[in-house]
Amino acid sequence: MGRQHVNTRNWICAIAAAAFLLGCASTDSTSSGPRMLRTKTCPAAMCDAIVTVDDSSGTPVVSMYYDVMKMKRGSNPTITWVLDAPDGYEFRQDSIAPHTGAAGGGKQTTTATQWTNQIRFLNVQTNRYRVKNANSTPGTLYYDVRVYKTGTAQSWLLDPAIMNDP
Q: How far apart are CA 141 and CA 133, in angstroms?
């Protein structure tokens, strides 16, 4: 009887954990089903985000492993997005910018003022984009990552977030 009780309790715990995880799922504007938001807590001085491009199917897919970068309390880190992509893709001056469009499809809005009060542009290269985050006001900054096809206006978007915790 004791062993059956333990197995039943384990099943109940597993079902509760699965329900919790599904409750945390959110859909993005580019997928048809739920995706799990992955959060990275950044160290105090710096935070790197790897942006990948997979064009093996013919249509480029831009992704980042972490959907949300959480800033450590008391830090104002330099954030560097590193482009890990085949030849022919690049960052440009507007590759990292607040999502100022209408909220919808799971994507929230950040005003240009909210963004510039927290995020200061440092520099951009074809495969690196750097900013300094003041991390002085709590809240979430929703932004777009735009990767361009080199030499064209064609681009692909991704919609991650930064959580400030001053």
A: 11
